Amino acid sequence: MTDTSEVHELLIARLTSRAMLDEEDQEAVRRLSIHLRGYRPHARIVREGDRPNTCGFIVSGFACRTKMTATGERQIVALLMPGDLINLQQIVLPRADHDVQALTSMQVGDIASTHLQELAQDRASIGRALWIDTLIEGSIVRELLLNNGRRDALQRLAHQLCEFAHRLAMSVGPSLSFDLPLTQEQLGDMTAMTGIHVNRTLKKLRDLGIITRTGRTFVINDWQALARQAMFTPNYLHLDAIGAASARAAHDAFSGFGVRWAPGAVLRRTVPAIKNDQA
Amino acid sequence: MTDTSEVHELLIARLTSRAMLDEEDQEAVRRLSIHLRGYRPHARIVREGDRPNTCGFIVSGFACRTKMTATGERQIVALLMPGDLINLQQIVLPRADHDVQALTSMQVGDIASTHLQELAQDRASIGRALWIDTLIEGSIVRELLLNNGRRDALQRLAHQLCEFAHRLAMSVGPSLSFDLPLTQEQLGDMTAMTGIHVNRTLKKLRDLGIITRTGRTFVINDWQALARQAMFTPNYLHLDAIGAASARAAHDAFSGFGVRWAPGAVLRRTVPAIKNDQA
DNA sequence: CGCTAGGTTGACGCCTTTCAAAGGACGTGG
DNA sequence: CCACGTCCTTTGAAAGGCGTCAACCTAGCG
Known about the structure:
2 copies of one chain form a homodimer.
Chain A: H1 5-16, H2 23-30, E1 34-39, E2 44-46, E3 54-60, E4 63-68, E5 74-80, E6 99-102, E7 106-112, H3 113-122, H4 124-150, H5 153-171, E8 177-179, H6 184-191, H7 195-207, E9 211-214, E10 217-220, H8 223-230, H9 245-256
Antiparallel strand pairs in A: 1-7, 2-6, 3-7, 4-5, 4-6, 8-10, 9-10
Helix pairs in contact in A: 3-4, 5-7, 5-8, 5-9, 6-7
Chain A binds a DNA duplex through helix 7.
């Protein structure tokens, strides 16, 4: 097996960004046996119904979680990037309930589920870090549900771009220029619209001068305008929950890119549909 | 404080439906201090940004998790029913990232987060049960994302009704007749449509003879037809992961209500947008 | 017995999809 | 080095599902 010491450090960095790990915890992680594996674009890493006995940790490249209706309509329910854990939930759940597919060439570190499970149980901080990681991913899915259900095409795309920039800031470093590893059709599968409409909507963002795009490289010309369009607030990413200051610093960079829109400024419904009585 | 022994048994029943608990585990649960609390309809049990130090367990009544955009558009991201844990995630995450609101009158058992956390850590089976519970809820959210994003109004509502019947089967017992504790507008907030369109779509289901409705009481006249409309498969509910046979039996009842549609029968796209190469 | 929340229905309009076709970008093979 | 295929992007025109606006009805309740 190849040397995976760098992979171990990446994993430790990820875990410490979720919860504080002491020296002993980190040593325990280093003792994990990690098997490096490569995937090509479009490879199915996990298939619905699978019972994998390893848990994948993304070293490089991008993947997505997808679900399909019986008629073949696809929905991307999560985007996975370097540092993300692919099928942590199979530590306790027997079967995968969705597919995971590579979007780009990838390097994935496979860890035996049993080992990870023992580690999580023996070392409370590590278990806590994994737990937090799961919960934050859950929060991101709920935000996607809100985004797709209650915002129009322009806002949806703008919101996804904001989220993408924020999450990339954690794994790669903050930047207003990045490669989006999704085709327009896949972006549509994520935002619940057709690829064609994604195209038209991106053009609108371009015409507004908010973004520039050459191929799959996006440049955010006006972060403030983009965040305003999306009415983006990163609360749901739980940045304040993060143990290590490093990750938080990456996010704070975006505040520097421009003052955010004033949260709560506009409220269309005066009376909430679900009212606000006290218990 | 009132006697909560029944509440303890409800909680134990829930946990054993997620993972096997031995006698010692169950005794440990019984030693938990649970404080019963009542809520009226529309009460906000958790508010986004809150830092609650207790975890709520629903004894009776219904609630929902909601998120809102800055313009006041609401999305219900989860429906909570008796047996569900309200804010388990605040055991490890400091802040709530969404609201929880009572839909009906409710009785909620409050458990100190620290106690629950210690219990989960000291007794592996209980931690496992809680973990599984979280993951199944996550799976349900992903299915809702697929449902809202990739199915039309009729399918969406049919699918929600199927899911509702299945989940009620676990907590209350299987039945083709039940009360839906949601107004049509709230049903719309869940399925990402307007209340008005929910009304029209329910009428269509009624005209098709699939359901009958008097007030908020639904009767499924033809389970098979409803499941076919929705193309419903309950895999995502992870019934096979459930430790206790009792819960599974409740679900099997639905098979008796009629043969399900043949899964995978219809496939519109011959070539998946994300192709199927091997690694 | 009036008030309020919720259900029902119609007309109209728009955002998004569908259908269709053509134009790049890139790799492969001749 | 160019032809050619594949995948992706781009754009137009037409159709349709769902939202919006508006009115009326019903039931429960103080």
